Amino acid sequence: MTGGSLGLRSGSYGSLQLHSFNGFGGGGLVQGKSSVIVRKSPGKMLVSGKDRPLSFVRCRYLGCRKVSMLLLVILAVLVFVLGSFTVNKESNRSNLGQQMESLVPFGNGVARDHVVYRSHGAKGDQDNRNFSVENSFRGRDEKGAQHPPPPFVSRGAAVFPSEHPCKNFALPPPPPPALRRRGPRPCPVCYLPVEQAIASMPSSPSTSPVLQNLAYVHDENPIKMEPHGGSDFGGYPSLQQRNDSFVIKESMRVHCGFVKGSRPGHQTGFDIDEAVLTELEQFYDIIVASAIFGNYDIIQQPKNISEVARKNIPFFMFIDEETEAYMRNSSALDSSMRVGLWRIIVVHNVPYSDARRNGKVPKLLLHRLFPNVHYSIWIDGKLQLVVDPYQILERFLWRQNANFAISRHYRRFDVFVEAEANKAAGKYDNASIDYQIEFYKKEGLTPYSEAKLPITSDVPEGCVIIREHIPITNLFTCLWFNEVDRFTSRDQLSFSIVRDKIMAKVDWSINMFMDCERRNFVIQAYHRDLLEQMAPPPPVAAGTQHSQALSNIHAAGKTPGRRTPPRHGRDRRSGSRRHRKAAAGNRENTAILNVF
């Protein structure tokens, strides 16, 4: 007997159901109880005594079979419904996974109801990949219908469906210990598409707390009045002048480098050609800047830069005469003074003998070289920018309602620990580091603790600075530079003392974001001297061919790596210790971080 025939029989009286219930696929299953009509026939109620036991057994048997079939059908339907719900739920849940799997070219006109997640490829994949997925966090109603994209506004009025598209973005959980790789790594970051990032740009400058007018000391004949610290370029500010500069007022005049000359870059000790100075003094909404001094790094070309950024955001690279000579000899620089996106600015008559200290001038005093810039992104010369500047500014300034952003160190957050690490790595002579730390201790510097929250770190990873140029941020970088000028050039040691002194006077803070987020938009490469010290890859050919290749190299007149100029006075570093650390693979400066 088939299941269909069983469905036409009543439970105990042998009556027939309506034909609408015939078969389980025609909808009768849902209406099983309400659509069954039982007719009680008197004739069939009379059963002889002989057939009564057999009828009783047959009814019990058939009744159990019917109940069993109904239960099986109900169970099958429940499994089907629950399975469909689970598949639908998993499909929705997989949206975030698709964010990391759906590869699209960066900057290809992504719709404005999309958000852009930038992550990195699998282990061993050297390519940087940008991922764009439909915004599953906002922009859809309960029925799953997609709302139209928000209107594009040119500037200052970004419109989102209800909340910021990246509000619900969360970092993925860390991999299990067995799959973790050593060293710092980048992490995914949620960026808006370029159009939305541009629309998020504030229409007016941020408010500068208390300080409204900032002027700078000019002195053609600075005199050193104290035995320690300072330089002719910085004007030798006294300790009293230093203390006064931390008293925030509505109008202030402070030392901020360039104390000589009629304007920064003109007979100041950090000299730039007159025609170039005119170019720097033009108005720019946003600039990207970097520097290479002492031929210490190799220029890294930015990637994934949108067309609108290429047209509207200039990229300035400051170099000294030594670096210029090397670039011209290697045919990397011609009369156009451009290398890819970088506009090369040659600096003459550098103020310091230490290339690292010279690099702090454009890094911290960018507002003096560019007096009419609204926003700037600084990256060290060893870094390669791989995310559009508009997206970086939106993510770390505009979204956070901040005007200064810098990443915190990936491992250390205490200045005292950072000082010991600098000494151990031979970053600077130990006596100068000890003097600086002892000076700060007398001023009240304490080890970092939870009592400083919401401040999350006292040690920045200072190779990237994202800032808005307003009086309070200009003052901060001026005073930070004065500390670098007075003490060691290790700006990580002086960052927190300046920040804390200003924050104690005014309602102002710095966005110190995670270092893994910084590593998402810049890739760090080796310094040039470390590249030259690295051993060549093992030869593939036989030993005789390798010897012949070596003889060909010598015959071609190839010279070994350049000699590093000697350092003098307080800028002297322990060379043997430094190179020994480099050869050992110092993770701070020698690790290549673009292997994801």
TrEMBL record:
The keyword Iron-sulfur does not apply. The chain crosses the membrane at residues 67-87. It comes from the Eukaryota. Residues 214-527 form the TOD1/MUCI70 glycosyltransferase-like domain. Keywords: Membrane, Transmembrane, Transmembrane helix. Residues 587-596 have a biased composition (Polar residues). Residues 560-582 have a biased composition (Basic residues). Residues 554-596 are annotated as: Disordered. Pfam families: TOD1_MUCI70 (PF04765). This is TOD1/MUCI70 glycosyltransferase-like domain-containing protein. It comes from Rubroshorea leprosula.
